Structure formats: structure tokens, C-alpha cells
Amino acid sequence: FFLAGLLTLYYSFQPDPPQSIADKIATELKEEMARSAKEIATIQSAIDSPSVLPAASLCPFFIYDNDSLIYWSDNSYIPAPQSVGDTFQVKLLKTGSEAYLATKQVVPDGRYIISIILLYRDYPINNDYLTSEWNREIFPSGDIYILEPTAIGGVPVCVENECLFRVSFVTGDLPSHAHARTLAGVLISISI
């Protein structure tokens, strides 16, 4: 048991391969997108009176009418009509310090609903009030760079055969096998 515990302990400190981490991110992202899709269906059913929708929604949403914003549930980031007016279903929206995943649902009469999922937000300064944010439901840590899907570097994050973006990890900061450490502790404890 002691030798098995030591080997497991060694393994637990080895970082996951980048592609494995990207696959886990894709799995979590798919779940967030499914929740967002359910929410868009609810919004679509109340499109003519969106103010009756619950204020505490999973993702911020925006209703556009022929490229004019007519309703928004959040004002921390509002996608410009030019960035969401083209035809897409899911799209990466990046600003200088933020990254979002936008989902678009076209409804009758030239209107469309945009729902955004925050991926990452960085601030030029970090202090007690402003710190970098990342979607903890999707990413294992905030030590990542989110890149365009056409970027040369990074590892692709794909959902249902569509690569939505790429991620690059800070060197030496890849998540390791935390659960294996617990198993190693148990095995070493049993051997003693």
C-alpha cells in the first residue's frame, strides 16, 4: 500500500495534458450552453413583455429589433449591434479585457435574442475591489488566455464539432490531479 500510495502521490502532482483540460472545459461549457438555451426559450415566450421575466437570470440577455437594442437584462457588457447582427448561432465576443460566448436566437419581425455567458474578465488594475473574474462553472482556474478559434496557438475548445475558441494556459500552472492526492493519502495511511 505504501508504494502504491507514493506512486499515486507522484501522479497527483503531474499536470493534466492541455487537451484533456480543454475537453473538460468543453463538457462544462456544453452544460452552460444548455442552461442558456432553456433560458432563451423562456425569454422567447415572453418576448413582447420581457420585463415580466425573473430578474435573476442565469445569463444576461439582450433583445434587438433590426439592429436596435430594445431590452437588456444587464448593463455590465452590452454587445454592439454590429458584433451580433450577422448570422451565427454561437460566437466568441472579445473586447480588450473580456471574453463572452454569445448565443443568438432569431425571432419573427426582425428581432433576435442574444444571451451571453461570461468566460473571462480582466481589469487593468487589481485591488480589493477589482480582481480578474472567470466563469468557475467552466474553467478550472483563471490562469488561462482565451483566444479566437482561428488563432494559431492554444488548444481548441469544441462543442458538438464546432470549435468556439482556443485556450492557452500559463506555463507551469496547469491543474493537476487533486483527487489522486486524496487517494494517495488514504493508501499511505492504510500502509502505516
Structure description:
The chain is of the alpha+beta class and 192 residues long. The protein has 4 helices and 9 strands; from the N terminus they run H-H-E-E-H-E-E-E-E-E-E-E-H. The strands form 2 sheets. Strands 1, 2, 3, 4, 5 and 6 form a 6-stranded antiparallel sheet that branches. It has a 3-stranded antiparallel sheet with strand order 7-9-8, covered by helices on one side. A hairpin with a 2-residue loop joins strand 1 (61-65) and strand 2 (68-72). Helix 1 (2-12) runs antiparallel to helix 4 (178-191). The N and C termini lie close together (9 Å). The mean pLDDT is 81.
- Characterize the largest beta sheet: strand count, sense, and whether it forms a barrel: 6 strands, antiparallel
Q: In percent, how helical is the residue content?
A: 25-40%
Order of helices and strands: HHEEHEEEEEEEH
What's the helix count? 4
User: Unreliable stretches, pLDDT < 50, 5 or more residues?
Assistant: none
**How far is it from the N-terminal to the C-terminal residue, by CA?**
9 Å
Describe the structure concisely.
With 192 residues, the chain is of the alpha+beta class.
Which helices and strands occur, and which strands form pairs?
Layout: H1 2-12, H2 18-45, E1 61-65, E2 68-72, H3 81-84, E3 90-94, E4 98-107, E5 111-121, E6 133-134, E7 144-147, E8 155-159, E9 162-169, H4 178-191
Antiparallel strand pairs: 1-2, 1-5, 3-4, 4-5, 5-6, 7-9, 8-9
Helix pairs in contact: 1-4
